[in-house]
Amino acid sequence: MKLRKIGDTTILCLVRGEEVLTCIREACAAQGIRLAELSALGAVDHAEIGVYHLAEKRFLPRVLDREMEICMLTGNVTQRSGETYLHLHGVLADAAGAVYGGHVNALRVSATAEILIRELPGEVNRRLDAESGIYLLDFPAGEEG
Hints:
It is built from 1 helix and 9 strands, in the order E-E-H-E-E-E-E-E-E-E. It is mainly beta. The protein is flat and about 50 Å long. The model has no long low-confidence stretch (mean pLDDT about 95).
């Protein structure tokens, strides 16, 4: 992973074999980023994406092992129990033109990935919502906007 910071934005350039979410977490730790928005483009050969099934309170993954372009990867960086928490959604396309999208749990770079992490001031934490089973943004009373 190569990293460069320009203003409030950290730019990552990943190469073949690197795991995207791991590199984002490492970059956030190295730069002290606690809250950010991010976007990315690139190419991958392994992905785990899917949809959260609310009634069952579980993630329904789809594992894709093929060459694909990252058409869009977007999300945010927040905190959960003092650790970096990533919430990413993406759209991937394969050589046949099939498109896959959803919540992203894993991506392995096949050629390169170019990631922009724009740091925001402050910090936002997450808390487990018992009803949905999802870690929601946590805005303590008196901090709303």
